[in-house]
Amino acid sequence: MNRLGRLSRRGWTALAAVAAMASLVAVPPALAHALPAGLGAVLKGAAQLVFSPADLLLVCGLCALAVQNGAEPGSRLRLVLPTAWLMGGAVGLGLPAKLATSWSSTVAFTLVGLLVALAVPLGQRLTTALAGVGGLVCGLAHGSALALHSGAPPALAGGAIAVALITTTLTLALRPPHPGWMRVGLRVVGSWIAASGLLSLGWLLKGPS
Predict the structure, then answer these.
(1) pLDDT band at 77 (very low <50, low <70, confident <90, very high)
(2) What is the pLDDT of residues 100-136, one digit of tens each?
(3) How far, in Å, are 54, 99, 133 from residue 30 at the CA level?
(4) Is 8 exposed, middle or buried (0-12, 13-18, 19+ CB in 10 A)?
(5) Structure pTM?
(6) How far apart are CA 95 and CA 179, in angstroms?
(7) CA within 20 to 30 Å of 20's CA: 47, 102, 162, 185, which one?
């Protein structure tokens, strides 16, 4: 009975995590960079991730990809992604102008979404490498956007903390082994991420009306 209870609690936790990931994936692009006023530098940096759909989709996609490939990639992701984000951001703070990353970030989360939707087995090293590259690129973009603003280092730290919290929460709640419904749920989330990316690419190709 205790074992069944533990499995039941874990199942509910995983279901809540899948639902939370789906909710994060559904953040409308219209909210991008519409940050609430009155936040401190650290909180503003953390909130910027939530209000930046491309980066949020990439983080969620990398979490799903990691747990699809086993427990060890999920453990590595919790360390690699926030660290790479912070390192990339530190470099970005030294750049003279904001980087234009709309295309690269959209292509990145679209590809990650496709990998999750197709449940492509990548293994530990490749999954970790993708997380490192994704964290460096997104951190670099955030750092360059913050470079000319006051309170940039605390804001960057806030963003890295938000990445660490989301990554830790999702990878622990969704850690393997996965029952059938969870495998399907992860692939559905991946398909949503990929579809969002394809739609965003269409908007970028169309350009301003």
Answers:
(1) very high
(2) 778 888 899 999 999 999 999 998 999 999 999 999 9
(3) 12, 20, 27
(4) exposed
(5) 0.83
(6) 46
(7) 102
Write out the two tokens for 108: 């990145």
What's the one-letter identity of residue 34? A
Counting beta carbons within 10 angstroms of the beta carbon of residue 72, is it exposed (0 to 12), middle (13 to 18) or buried (19 or more)? middle
Query: At residue 50, what are phi and psi to the nearest 5 degrees?
Result: -65, -30
Chain segment 126-137, per-residue pLDDT in tens: 999 999 999 998
Give the CA-trace dihedral at 175, 176, 179, 185, to 10 degrees.
50
User: CA end-to-end span of the chain, whole Å?
Assistant: 61
Whether 157 and 25 have beta carbons less than 8 Å apart is answered as no
